[in-house]
Design brief:
The complex is a heterotrimer of chains A (161), B (106) and C (110).
Chain A lengths: L1 H18 L1 H5 L1 H21 L15 H24 L8 E6 L5 H13 L3 E7 L2 E6 L2 H8 L2 H10 L3
Antiparallel strand pairs in A: 1-3, 2-3
Helix pairs in contact in A: 1-3, 5-7
Chain B lengths: L3 H24 L3 H25 L6 H24 L3 H8 L10
Chain C lengths: L1 H28 L3 H27 L3 H30 L12 E2 L4
The chains are: A mainly alpha (161), B mainly alpha (106), C mainly alpha (110).
Chain lengths: 161, 106, 110
């Protein structure tokens, strides 16, 4: 129930952002928004997809410190990759590693794999079971992923540690 | 001093990046290089629309940027599905005989 | 106050432009497909983020900033997904990445 409520709030906010002043001035456009909102909620209820996976409410406020951590990681690894690209010799140290993703929920594993891909220098190539195969551009980036720092942060994001 | 010139410089830099991506899309050699370059081209299109919106002071065009970003993603996933099941004959040729790949602009 | 915002916008826009050009050079210079993916990642994350951040400063506290925020949100969500789909289907079609190290490492111990 609370997932559906959050879904309704999100959809209403999206409609208001994209229609802007048109909705405020014109009741007809507001009514159109209401109709499409209702249709979307009914379809989502019939497909049974409004659950903790599509609306990860259990992350709650802990998503904010994780976002800042992710931004810091993105900036640091971007500068590393930019150095590799710009240096005349291009000191490539390509390697393939396997990172363990043993979180309870699938959504946490997906967040880990997507965060690994989002930081340049490492790309999650395939994922079977609890193993994520990662292609890394330098040994340092690979070692950073292997150290399990990001996995620890995601455990914190889930509220487990 | 306004930010007009910063916007112009950024737009030119984005255009340079787009042409570099286009060069890679034409050079290949595999179909995945082309798809990667096209994806980058699409992302740059979104940024170019945002910057041009601010240059000509018409910020309602930002809706187009969002549309492009979603279309770019869906288009790329569709292309990858097609390449997995439909099969591009190009890929076989390019991966096996890199030296003789003359089919540039396909 | 205005001048500070303008200077910050200049900084963000120009550094974003530089980062996206670096990504563009990377996609040309790097030797094979799996390394080029990383160059695409630069332009999608920091290049896009800095440019849109600079525009957000100009937008101020308004609907424009909310729209820009939605755009960067969708880019951040879709870009790694697209990158992963690309890498996975390349592997599935039998492309092997060139590696500089011998055996694959892994963190079995814990």
């Amino acid at each position: 129930m609370k997932y559906t409520l959050v879904l309704i709030l999100n959809l209403a906010a999206a409609w208001m952002i994209w229609s802007g002043s048109n909705s405020v001035d014109n009741p007809f456009i507001l009514a159109l928004g209401g109709c499409s909102l209702l249709l979307t909620v009914v379809v989502c209820a019939r497909m049974r997809i409004s659950d903790s996976e599509s609306v990860p409410l259990h992350f709650s406020w802990r998503i904010v410190p994780y976002t800042f951590y992710l931004i810091k990681e993105i900036i640091v690894s971007n500068i590393d990759v930019a150095k590799i690209v710009l240096s005349p010799k291009m000191p490539l140290q390509r390697t393939m590693i396997e990172v363990t993703a043993d979180h309870d929920s699938d959504i946490a594993n997906v967040v880990l794999a997507n965060s690994i891909t989002l930081t340049p220098g490492t790309v999650a190539v395939s994922m079977d079971g609890e193993k994520i195969k990662v292609h890394a551009l330098s040994f340092e980036g690979a070692a950073e992923d292997l150290s399990g720092e990001m996995a620890g942060k995601i455990r914190k994001l889930e509220g487990k540690a | 001093m306004g930010i007009y010139y910063a916007l112009i410089v950024t737009a030119v830099a984005i255009l340079v990046t787009m042409s570099l991506a286009m060069i890679r899309a034409m050079a290949g050699p595999t179909v995945f290089d082309r798809v990667l370059a096209l994806n980058m081209f699409g992302t740059k299109t979104v940024l170019l629309i945002c910057v041009v919106c601010f240059t000509i002071q018409r910020t309602d065009f930002l809706d187009l940027a969002l549309l492009y970003s979603l279309m770019n993603f869906i288009g790329m996933v569709a292309l990858l599905r097609f390449s997995q099941f439909g099969g591009f004959a190009d890929f076989e040729d390019a991966s096996q005989s890199k030296s003789t790949s003359t089919s540039g602009g396909r | 106050m205005d001048i500070v915002v303008d200077i910050l916008t200049w900084l963000l826009l120009i550094s974003g432009a530089v980062f996206s050009m670096i990504g563009g050079f990377g996609i040309i210079r790097l030797p094979e497909f799996f390394s080029r993916m990383h160059a695409g990642g630069i332009t999608d994350t920091l290049g896009a983020g800095l440019i849109i951040g600079g525009l957000m400063l100009q937008g101020g506290f308004s609907l424009v900033t909310a729209k820009l925020f939605m755009i960067i949100f969708f880019l951040i969500i879709t870009s790694p997904t697209a990158c992963h789909a690309l890498a996975k289907s390349a592997l599935a079609q039998g492309m092997q990445p060139e590696l500089d190290s011998g055996a694959p490492m892994s963190n079995e111990k814990e």
